[in-house]
Write a structure and sequence with these properties.
The protein is mainly α and 164 residues long. The protein has a single domain, classed as Up-down Bundle (Four Helix Bundle (Hemerythrin (Met), subunit A)), CATH 1.20.120.520. Helix content is 83%, strand content 0%. It is built from 6 helices and no strands. Helix 1 runs parallel beside helix 6 and helix 2 packs antiparallel against helix 6. The radius of gyration is 17 Å and the shape is elongated. The two termini are 34 Å apart.
């Protein structure tokens, strides 16, 4: 029987990314509805989810990746994932600042500027997610033992919003 570990780890990560995408969609829908308060609220929920996810990866996933030789085995060392997390944090801060200045309701130009900026941010997230799903999690699925894989799944699940 084929080992289901690669599917399990990648699916656990993708479940969290799907939650994040749903929150971002709710935020952008609120923007399109010109409901600035709801847009800020849903963005804050999205950002919190992303930050918890990155923290879980930095606390559990990336140290294990290093320990098992992922840095040597791939052109995607753990430091690169951490740098991407730092870039994601900077983007979240910048977008939060832009949201803080939106009028109620936002003018067309403001709305287009923030949606354009968010499109760039979404491209960063898509690239990061792709690298995780093609490199990080498959490597861990292949090299981590069952208890370590269970710790990864638990860390990702615990990073999710409790009421979601």
């Amino acid at each position: 029987m084929e080992d289901a570990a690669p599917v399990v780890l990648t699916a656990a990560n993708e479940r969290e990314h799907a939650r994040q995408r749903a929150l971002l969609l709710a935020h952008q829908s609120a923007l399109l509805d010109r409901d600035t308060a709801a847009a800020r609220r849903t963005f804050d929920a999205f950002a919190a989810e992303i930050l918890r996810h990155a923290a879980a990866e930095e606390a559990v996933v990336l140290p294990l990746y290093r320990e098992l030789g992922g840095d040597a085995a791939h052109a995607s060392p753990a430091d690169q994932f951490e740098r991407e997390h730092a870039k994601i944090r900077r983007w979240l801060d910048a977008l939060r600042e832009r949201l803080a200045t939106l009028g109620q309701p936002p003018a067309d130009g403001e709305l287009l500027q923030i949606l354009d900026a968010e499109a760039s941010f979404k491209n960063l997230l898509a690239h990061h997610d792709l690298r995780e799903n093609r490199i990080l999690y498959p490597f861990l699925a292949e090299h981590a033992d069952a208890p370590a894989r269970a710790r990864i799944v638990a860390a990702l699940a615990s990073a999710a919003t409790p009421d979601r």
